[in-house]
Amino acid sequence: MEKNSDYWGRDFLILSLLLGVLLGFRLGTRPLCSADEGRYSEIPREMVASGDYLTPRLNGVKYFEKPPFFYWLQSASIKLFGLSEWSLRLWPAVFALLGCLVVYVAGRELFGRRSGLISSIVLATSPLYYGLGRFITLDMAVSVILGCALSAFLLGTRHPPGQTRRFFMWAFYVFAALATLTKGLIGIVIPGLVIGAWIVLLCEWEILKSIYLPSGLVLYAIIAVPWHVLMSQASPEFARFYFVHEHFQRYLTRGDHGLFRQSWFYIPVVLGGAFPWTVFLVQAVKNNLPSSWRQRHQHRDALFLILWAGLSFLFFSASSSKVVPYILPLFPSLAIL
């Protein structure tokens, strides 16, 4: 009889082929159709044209709003494949595919092969996730990278201290740093909220002793810090705009250009963005919640996923600036649930 472990390669191949076709079909036939697609195409184009990969520029003007990781990937795509709608939409589609594969791995490790396969299909066919996988924006990239970080952390806690746990924890810090380099401080804020609340809920403070914090912070700093330091040296006005205005003021104050929405704005976005799978949402949460406080340790993995979705939802709902794609980071956890 074929062992369950023998299905890994087959599942990866089948999912990659099927989802690759789904996400890549006619990817470059539609012209750029929004300010975001134009902005996140022009900035990497100017990087390639100028040879300056440190300072993002839009129409020749310094653009401090977002870090450069996604722009670097877009620049590489332009240099390799030329400037076209297909080459510019390639990375969002690649990230969308990667996110589905990560959900498969996490779902399989947590709840079995069948759950992993279904989770991957649910995520790929959720309208909001699928649509943003074919749209040039930072949100797919940061959502998938955050998903990689949180999945690595959760899977790492399932192993005793040692080489395997260290690998997963170091992967967590690396992905958190890449998320920070993609869209700023949410790369560490979202994981910090979820992991902190999970540890408090379980009252398992000893977890902090085995997450390889010193070496992990060094890894995080090596990846995330240099660009911020170099930018601050090259442009003294960068630090205040980037950290104060773009992160704190934008989160706490009403934004321009129609970004402000009511606190309930993301409820219909999530329900519609995950349709038709939202019909199972209440059932999924109910079946994974412990029936009593004492049983919470028996549902530790599911509680992590619920906190991942719930705290992400509350964090973005509390912001005064709301845009539909912002809510995407909670979709991987919902798909697994």
Give, in order, the helices and strands: HHEEHHHHHHHHHHHHH
**DSSP strand count:** 2
Secondary-structure-based class equals mainly alpha
- Determine the fraction of residues in helical runs and give it as a percent range: 55-70%
Question: Could you give the distance between the termini?
Answer: 30 Å
- Largest beta-sheet characterization: 2 strands, antiparallel
**Shape by Cα distribution:** globular
Summarize model confidence as the mean pLDDT: 91
Number of helices: 15
Q: Beta fraction of the residues?
A: under 5%
User: Radius of gyration over alpha carbons?
Assistant: 20 Å
Index terms:
two-stranded antiparallel sheet, 2 strands, 15 helices, 337 residues, mainly alpha
Task: Note down, in words, how this protein is organized.
- The chain has 337 residues and is mainly α.
- It contains 15 helices and two strands.
- The protein has helices spanning 7-24, 35-50, 69-81, 85-111, 113-124, 127-132, 138-157, 163-183, 186-202, 213-234, 238-252, 266-273, 281-288, 300-318, 331-336; strands at residues 57-58, 61-62.
- Strands 1-2 form a two-stranded antiparallel ribbon.
- β1 and β2 (61-62) form a beta hairpin.
- α7 runs parallel beside α9, α8 runs parallel beside α10 (213-234) and α9 crosses α14.
